[in-house]
């Protein structure tokens, strides 16, 4: 390959600090997770720091993150390029996984936990730590996360343009 291609790509690449799509994804994740944390605090008046990293719940931070990434790439580079195509396909896979596989795994965990709770105290499985039940997302949680991601990417783009 032409050496100029490698030189040009490396010299014009933005640093990670000013990488607008990456920052959009991180901000979307942080806002979605913070929303879960503050929602719990307002509803139940309790502080649960695990909400800042837990999966599941409203809004979907998975959807917010991948849609912010794809939207930011689309805003920055246009929607006709290969990088946008990759980001869009990644977003679709993550969203499908969040509403399909992970949601069903969470529902299975609920059933298994109920079975374990009903076991007699002397049963060897009765002392098991419960399985995590909140793993996936409902379609509404994914939709809100996706909208949040696009809004954050759009705000970031407006900040960069202005």
UniProtKB/TrEMBL annotation:
Keywords from the named record: Membrane, Transmembrane, Transmembrane helix
Keyword match Transmembrane helix: yes
InterPro entries linked: DUF212
Keyword Membrane belongs to the record: yes
Ranges that cross the membrane: 20-42, 63-96, 140-160
The protein's name in its UniProt record: Acid phosphatase/vanadium-dependent haloperoxidase-related protein
Naturally occurring in which organism (per UniProt): Acacia crassicarpa
Organismal lineage: Eukaryota, Viridiplantae, Streptophyta, Embryophyta, Tracheophyta
């Amino acid at each position: 390959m032409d050496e100029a291609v490698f030189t040009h790509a490396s010299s014009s690449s933005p640093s990670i600090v000013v990488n607008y799509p990456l920052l959009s994804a991180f901000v979307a994740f942080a806002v979605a997770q913070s929303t879960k944390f503050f929602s719990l605090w307002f509803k139940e008046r309790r502080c649960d720091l695990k909400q800042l990293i837990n999966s599941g719940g409203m809004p979907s931070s998975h959807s917010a993150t991948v849609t912010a990434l794809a939207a930011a790439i689309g805003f920055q580079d246009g929607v006709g390029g290969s990088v946008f195509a990759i980001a869009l396909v990644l977003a679709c896979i993550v969203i499908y996984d969040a509403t399909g596989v992970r949601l069903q795994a969470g529902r299975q965990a609920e059933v298994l936990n109920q079975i374990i709770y009903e076991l007699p105290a002397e049963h060897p499985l009765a002392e098991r730590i419960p399985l995590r039940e909140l793993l996936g997302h409902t379609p509404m949680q994914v939709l809100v996360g996706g909208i949040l991601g696009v809004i954050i990417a759009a705000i970031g783009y407006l900040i960069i343009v202005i």
